[in-house]
Amino acid sequence: MAGDVRVGIVGATGAVGMEMLRVLEARRYRLGAIRLFASARSAGRRVKFAGEELVIEELKKGVFQGLDIVLFSAGGGTSPEYAPDAVAAGAVVIDNSSAFRMKDDVPLVVPEINAGDCFGHRGIIANPNCSTIITLMALAPLHRTFGLRRVIASTYQAVSGSGAMAIEELKRQVGQVSSGEAVTREVYPHQIAFNVIPHVDQFLESGYTKEEMKMENEGRKILHHPSLRVSCTCVRVPVYRAHSISVVAEFEKAVDVAGARAAIDAFSGVEMKDDPATLTYPMPLDIAGMDDCFVGRLRRDCAFENGLSFWVVGDQLLKGAALNAVQIAEVLQRGR
């Protein structure tokens, strides 16, 4: 797929879709053409891109002819309906929903970790869950160095992961609490302002949620590590943007902090931000809008013999979604 590529974005008016467009422009992706698709109510809207105005087209069957890659970010219901149509039209689909992630014939890719898997696709490549991507950006170099056995993780997930309405709900509730008004809620089952909710996605019979199981299931597939064991608790926090994850990881080999730092420093897309003496560690307020993920609070774990504990933060709209999808497109364009 060398040369200029004709790209479409499905869900172009959503938060991730708009970030995809911005990332394509910022990274100067070699575009032969760009087309934007959304629901009928958004059709006809104009969006600025690279000094021009693009008109949003209505998403419907038969609109994908002539496109090489279609980035999907319109939800798990839209992808199964329209992605096969895009593939039939000759495009490669890079899908941000959970619809195809665990299908055996669909690569699940974080380019810094398993870019080669892209070339086993049959028309669809899946973008992993945002928290999974951010966590694995720190764990992958440690796994290569020490051999990962199991993980205990707690996520601190920003409200923008639930969409624009969740952002507005947090803003509204902050104002309501500050003014002494009754708090109203529409998106979350409980008040999110000045609160944390230990519940992301639907509960399963096991007591875990679907979001929590993604860390194990997707992690195994991306790392090619079928025996990986993960226990995760996902928490929604009153932060607008960027997810944070607290991680305890156990390894096959003896670990040392210096070796762990060196492994992370040498890995593309993740950086150390860790100096307790100067109170330096990654926080979502600082990391929002940044492409890389950042690791801090790295230390030997005192519960596992070969364990490390750390804190990792990444922008879930960028590396956790839009940026990762565009990086997959770049891999396809390079052809390697």
Keywords:
single chain; Rossmann fold; 9 helices; 336 residues; 7-stranded mixed beta sheet; 24% strand; 2 domains; Dihydrodipicolinate Reductase, domain 2; 6-stranded mixed beta sheet; 13 strands
Can you walk me through this structure?
It is a single chain. By secondary structure, the protein is of the alpha/beta class. It folds into two domains: 5-127 and 321-334, NAD(P)-binding Rossmann-like Domain (Rossmann fold, 3-Layer(aba) Sandwich), CATH 3.40.50; 132-316, Dihydrodipicolinate Reductase, domain 2, CATH 3.30.360. Helices cover 31% and strands 24% of the residues. It contains nine helices and 13 strands. The strands form two sheets. A seven-stranded mixed sheet has the order 3-4-2-1-5-6-7, with helices on both faces. Strands 9-8-10-13-12-11 form a six-stranded mixed sheet. Helix 4 (130-146) packs across helix 7. The longest helix has 17 residues, at 130-146. The radius of gyration is 20 Å and the shape is globular. The model has no long low-confidence stretch (mean pLDDT 96).
